Amino acid sequence: MSLATLAVAGGEGRAAAPLPKDPLDSPMWAYHAQRLLSGAPVVFDPAVRLILPGIAENQHQFPVTVDARTLPGVTRILIYADLNPLTLAADYRPIHAAPYLSLRIKLDQRTPVRAAVLAGDGKWHVNGAWVDAAGGGCSAPPVSRVKGDWAQHLGEMRGEAWREGSGPLRLRFTMRHPMDTGLVEGIPAYNLESVIVRGADGVELARMQVEGSVSEDPAFTLLVNPVKDGPVSVTLRDSSGREFGGRIAPQSRPAR
After folding, report:
1. pLDDT for residue 249 is more than 50
2. Which of 207, 146, 206, 205 lies closest to 178 in space, CA to CA?
3. What pLDDT sits at residue 146?
4. Hey, which of 22, 34, 49, 231 has its CA 20 to 30 A from 160?
């Protein structure tokens, strides 16, 4: 029996769906798919738009955008890099939000970068691409550690939100945090772990689990659908239990 068919789905004793052949021919495809995708059926699907450069000019700040708005009923989006020592970057749940996520991650070497989207049909829709990277994104100290000013700016957040026409609210925010991976000698792991976005009425719009492979001073762009007009609140918690956050008031912008 092949490695791709040995997994057990959801701890319920039923065999996982067989994995399709990886079009990227990654040596870690089957291992990570079993570990991250919980045995659900998998299809490779270009409907998952994965927008990223083919070469990492800066392996510490590599931009990734996932747009799965053509798929109905999306409940989760995973972003991961097969050959990173910290594989998973983000596990996003767009509760009252469009299935769209933009962020920056670290790359430690040449690797496939993938987006896996769990849609309403119960299948993971996956897309990915090989990215050339010089290496060291996860195993080099962040700039704020080198400068020594990280503690003075820890938790500072900036953000903006606006509507373009009648579409969802585009929410963009960044927060100062070293996002230490634990792979640099003498610097223990210390990273953001969760992000929760709520509307003005307190209703949870989106939540995300993040790992140390997200870039230093992480920046996120989401498309949320609040029921009530007013400021959107963002709450972030890190691995030491510290909680940060703020409120972002929507601004008016003309439709492009």
Report:
1. yes
2. 146
3. 66
4. 49
CA distances, 207 to each of 27, 57, 94, 185, 197 (Å):
31, 29, 7, 32, 6
pLDDT of residue 11: 42
Q: How much is the pTM?
A: 0.91
Is the pLDDT score of 43 beyond 70? Answer: yes
Angstrom distances, CA of residue 5 to CA of 19, 33, 37, 122, 217: 7, 11, 13, 18, 39
CB 159 within 8 A of CB 234: yes
End-to-end CA distance of the chain: 54
Residue 149's pLDDT band (boundaries 50, 70, 90)?
confident
AA letter at 19: L
Strands 97-105 and 88-93: unpaired
Q: Domains in the chain, please, with CATH?
A: 18-253 (2.60.40.2470)
